[in-house]
Amino acid sequence: MTPRVDHIAGETFHGRQGGVDNAFRYSIDYVCLDAEAQALQAPHLFSRNRWNLFSLSDADHGGAPKSGSGAAWVREVLGAHGIGLDPARIELLAQPRVLGHVFNPVSFWLCHDAAGALRVVVAEVSNTFGDRHSYLCHHDDLSPITSRDTLEARKVFHVSPFQDIAGGYRFRFDLRADRVGVWIDFRAGEERLYATLTGRRRPLTNRAILRACLRRPFGSRRVLVLIFWQALKLRLKGARYRNRPLPPPDEVSR
Predict the structure, then answer these.
(1) What is residue 78's predicted lDDT score, i.e. its pLDDT?
(2) pLDDT tens, 209-220?
(3) Averaged pLDDT for residues 3-21
(4) Which of 118, 134, 135, 204 could form a disulfide with 7 if both were Cys (CB 3.0 to 4.6 A apart)?
């Protein structure tokens, strides 16, 4: 059977505590697909590696922004970090391009074994300064990642100018055939940021694409506007601004 492209008409929540409190919630669109499939079951308004109303480009993921190599990069990362896993399927969960534009604050590479179990997740984080860093998430013994598990990573990458590079992340994933749930809990001393992505998972259709463009016009351009709006609110509340440091020398960490 030809793999399909799935659509997650989801919701994201961000809640910040410690120092300056802030919270917001808004709707968002993600797609999920087999990143190595030669053919995909997809509607006419979606394309892979070419322009369309909704599209996804391999160059946007797996390596430096706009020069990525897609799933091939994921396999290189697994080998370079000594991960003894040859994934039977690598899925990409990411926001699509809308009319050619994209910005993904975080995308996820999902590495499954032959039985379909999730074994490794690569969280690909991008900031508004054009930098990118990825966090490699897995159990030490590469046992399946379930919805009850929490995976940790030390923060090394500058994301928000209102947070220091300190502390760490706790990731939790609940990825089902009909629903997606991702929870990220960042803590550094008294400071905490809790971010979520949740939504129903369905086959992507032309109707869903048109509905998304009507309800959430401009796609990731809208996301960027919302990010800068929340930054302005934090600034007005008195949050201290940190200048952008150099990105970490390694593009992937645990």
Answers:
(1) 98
(2) 999 988 887 777
(3) 92
(4) 204
For residue 75, what are its two tokens?
């396999």
* Structure-token pair, residue 242: 């940190």
Residue 176 three-state SS: coil
Helix-strand-coil percent breakdown of the chain, rounded to 5? 15, 40, 45
- Find tokens 């959430």 and name the residue: 216
Max CA distance (Å), the chain = 55
Structure tokens that stand for 184 in this block: 């990220």
Q: Hey, which bits of the chain come out as E strands? A: 6-17, 22-34, 46-48, 54-56, 89-94, 97-98, 106-112, 118-126, 132-137, 151-154, 168-175, 179-188, 191-203, 252-253
- Summarize pLDDT for 45-85 with one digit per residue, the tens: 999 999 999 999 999 999 988 899 999 999 999 999 999 99
Output the six-digit token pair for 189.
């001393």
Q: Judge whether 90 and 116 are in contact, CB under 8 Å.
A: no
Structure tokens at 140: 């030490």
The predicted-structure confidence for 197-237, as pLDDT tens digits, reads as follows: 999 999 999 999 999 988 887 777 787 788 888 888 888 88
Q: Which among 35, 113, 101 has a CA at the least distance from the CA of 65?
A: 101
Residues 6+ apart with CB under 8 A from 148: none
- Look up residue 94 and give its amino acid: A
8-state DSSP, 103: -
Q: Which of the 8 DSSP states describes residue 5?
A: P
